[in-house]
Design a protein that fits this description.
The protein is mainly β. It has four helices and 67 strands.
Length: about 775
């Protein structure tokens, strides 16, 4: 096994090179993937899988991925301040946390855990000890809190209302010698009965202050506060927020957008766009969610403007939203939601049943879809027997129905809903008045074997609160068509596994509060895999998906993810293969839109892996944060940015585009530049900060071979280009960038345009990829 441990001399050389202090790092030490936190500041660690054969780890924006064959464990070394460790549910490598005092903790997959190794300070203190917020077993924050010297810590003083239960803290008070805070300062209202979160408050000898400055309302239940603590279902979540009275502290606001009555597995949707962000912004701050549902999938590893969760069991749960700014200020708030007990009637369907039965039990199972349509009403569970195939000449019609669950019973292969002709536009039919619909564990198929427009859709989604969990799709036009503008949708854990079976879109997306989480798609013959395409589409979260375009001969090359007209979108921890991600409207001459109506704004793209794919920024993208991504682009530029001149009939200008902490790694000899501007016209506000560009075999003289290529556009499009490390082969000294019709070295680029300072250095990743978040822990040859 190759030992990749860096020597002390190598580390020192790196620090001298960048003239910066080594703050945090990720490195491969033998068979251990090590994450080292900053000893003097708060740290955030993330571990996730990168495809089927690699593990990817981040420490404060630095990332490294290594083959599972070469890594036996992930070891995280905490700093002395606040630490957050998040391990994705798909991680199979053991993850161990080592505290400054040498104590160790094993972190289970699907877990986010907060650590506070230091419990005393000179300014303020946090509530209580380490806190688990997800995974198989959660640990609460401990029974007592610690005191500070300057001011006291906030407990669970904020009051919350909704669903008849309050959120309380850790059960004991903390004292301080300066000012004190009380927990009952502000309250928020939901739709339930008001209950006060009296919890425990902290007292001191100075003047008193209220706990939180922000209140929120929601249709379910809501709570307020920066620094409140709460108890959830199976795992505790304790606030470790910054001083809420500090203007730099963010103040999260949770809005619950779901319907008022939630049954098991119906979607609970939340968003935080009404929050304030203190020293950060809505794009550069991290908004993370914990749903208080220990052991469940995606309980505590979603980030973004909006999120959703399906609770399998009845009960009252605490949802926590944490906002962390780039300089480490933290705001925390929570709310409770109640999932009602399931008392619905059940209809059993079996391929061996009889339509003379009433479907009330397995022994009285009905047989046909037509008989099901006669019996089904609102508040019904429908269970199809495993191993059966159910022929359909018409849709399962759930139009106007509420709280309907379609699932399975028995053992064997998943039941197959098979469209065999007739009037089947989609296998499941909904309407705008459909509400609380859940479909789980079914296989959708048709007898169509050609792309001739005759294949049905899986479901034309409409209405409010629609969930598809763990279904499989074959031989369909669109697996999901959301062109009726639904709201509160969760599409999670579904699969379209065959490259020649999806003719259209996996998900044509319109509406609001749309969550597409953890799905796998092998290909689409004719279309992009996911496309958001309608004015008014808002709050789309695309996370943890594996999207592939295989593009066999004769098929159409299109994107993996086309994010056109969306306000507030999150694209997080996906793997895109052979297909681009694209933001912004595509063509005004076709779409007939104006700059006022066709805008893609507030776009977060973080921690994704691009395999043989690229990022395309079309005109009228307003506010893009493209960070912590790994790009393997052997024959194309990694990032394409179109100017307003790309469309002659409208003046669409993209603005505020930030590209930071990304890694482009390619060994191809041609066509693998980093950023190219094309189309002419105008783009404004581009920042390129702390990226690593490794292209050692690049040739000379082609726009595809530059770190930055401006074409006919002005260098004024850029506001900063700094902290980047690039190596583009033998031409690095003379032809790193192409600006104003001339090739120029990186040093000349830096001195001529004053956008920042960058380094040209040979980079050898070997079997690993590395993201350099702070420009200090640089990759070196032989690492």
């Amino acid at each position: 096994m190759k030992n990749n441990k860096r020597s002390k001399a190598a580390r020192q050389a790196l620090e001298n090179l960048e003239n910066r202090q080594l703050l945090s790092s990720v490195l491969l030490d033998g068979t251990s993937l090590e994450l080292h936190g900053n000893s003097d500041h708060s740290n955030k660690f993330v571990v996730r899988s990168a495809g089927d054969d690699r593990v990817l780890a981040f420490a404060n924006g630095k990332g490294k991925a290594a083959s599972l064959d070469s890594v036996n464990e992930v070891v995280i070394y905490l700093g002395n301040d606040k630490n957050i460790v998040s391990v994705a549910s798909d991680v199979t490598t053991p993850v161990e946390v080592i505290r400054p005092d040498g104590k160790t903790t094993i972190i289970n997959p699907g877990t986010t855990k907060k650590f506070n190794p230091s419990h005393s300070g000179s300014g303020s203190s946090s509530g209580s000890g380490d806190t688990g917020t997800g995974g198989d077993s959660g640990s609460s924050g401990g029974g007592s809190s610690t005191s500070g010297v300057g001011s006291s810590s906030t407990g669970a003083g904020t009051s919350s209302t909704g669903s008849g239960s309050s959120s309380t803290g850790s059960g004991s008070s903390s004292t301080g010698s300066g000012t004190s805070s009380t927990g009952s300062g502000t309250s928020s209202t939901g739709s339930g009965t008001s209950s006060t979160g009296s919890g425990t408050s902290s007292t001191g000898s100075g003047s008193s202050s209220t706990g939180s400055g922000t209140s929120s309302t929601g249709s379910g239940s809501s709570s307020t506060g920066s620094g409140t603590s709460s108890t959830g279902s199976g795992s505790g979540s304790t606030g470790t927020a910054s001083n809420p009275n500090d203007p730099a502290t963010p103040h999260p606001v949770i809005t619950v957008t779901s319907v008022s009555t939630i049954l098991p597995l119906e979607t609970v949707n939340v968003q935080a766009i009404k929050s304030t962000f203190g020293s950060g912004t809505n794009l550069n701050s991290t908004i993370s969610w914990n749903f208080g549902d220990s052991g469940s999938t995606y309980n505590s590893n979603l980030i973004g403007f909006n999120a959703a969760h399906a609770y399998a069991n009845a009960g009252t749960y605490t949802i926590t939203c944490t906002i962390t700014t780039p300089d480490g200020h933290v705001g925390i708030t929570n709310t409770t939601v109640t999932v009602a007990a399931d008392t619905r009637k059940t209809i059993y369907v079996s391929a061996n049943g009889s339509d003379s039965n009433n479907g009330s039990s397995a022994s009285q199972a009905i047989q046909s879809i037509s008989r099901l349509d006669q019996l089904i009403t609102s508040n019904t569970r429908v269970l199809f027997q495993d191993g059966g195939t159910y022929s359909m000449k018409s849709s399962i019609d759930l139009s106007g129905l509420q709280h309907v669950y379609l699932g399975t019973y028995g053992s064997g292969a998943a039941p197959i809903l098979m469209a065999t002709g007739g009037n089947v536009g989609s296998l499941i039919s909904l309407s705008t008045s459909s509400e609380g619909i859940v479909v789980q564990g079914l296989t959708f198929d048709s007898t169509s074997t050609s792309d001739d427009g005759t294949a049905p859709d899986g479901c034309d989604i409409a209405g409010n609160g629609i969930v598809f969990l763990d279904n499989t799709f074959y031989h369909l036009e669109d697996d999901f068509n959301l062109n009726q503008n639904p709201t509160n949708v969760l599409i999670q854990g579904n699969s379209s596994p065959n490259a020649n079976d999806l003719y259209g879109y996996f998900a044509w997306t319109q509406g609001t509060e749309i969550n597409i989480i953890g799905n796998t798609v092998a290909n689409s013959i004719d279309q992009a895999l996911v496309r958001a395409d309608a004015v008014g589409t808002q709050d789309v979260n695309l996370s943890f998906n594996n999207l592939t375009k295989t593009s066999p001969a004769g098929q159409t090359y299109k994107n993996c993810w086309t994010c056109m007209w969306v306000d507030y979108s999150t694209t997080y921890m996906n793997t895109f293969t052979n297909g681009a991600m694209q933001t912004g409207p595509l063509d005004p001459s076709v779409d007939g839109q104006t700059p006022d109506t066709a805008t893609c704004s507030n776009v977060l793209v973080s921690s994704n892996v691009f395999n043989n794919s690229k990022m395309i920024v079309s005109p009228n993208t307003q506010g893009l944060q493209f960070v912590n991504n790994v790009l393997h682009s052997p024959d194309t530029n990694a990032i394409w940015i179109a100017g307003s001149g790309d469309y002659d009939d409208v003046n669409w200008v993209s603005n505020d585009l930030y590209f930071g902490h990304n890694t482009l790694e390619t060994t191809d000899g041609d066509g693998s530049g980093f950023i190219v501007l094309y189309g002419g016209g105008t783009v404004t506000g581009i920042s390129v900060v702390d990226n690593v560009y490794d292209a050692p075999n690049i040739g000379y003289g082609d726009y595809d071979n530059a770190f930055i290529y401006t074409g006919s556009m002005s260098i004024s499009a850029f506001t900063s280009v700094t902290g980047n490390v690039l190596y583009n082969g033998s031409n690095a000294s003379s032809s790193a960038n192409y600006v104003n019709g001339n090739w120029m070295s990186q040093s000349d680029f830096d001195s001529d345009y004053g956008l920042g300072t960058n380094k040209v250095q040979a980079v050898d990743f070997g079997s690993t990829w590395e993201i350099d978040g702070a420009g200090s822990d640089l990759p070196v040859a032989g690492n």
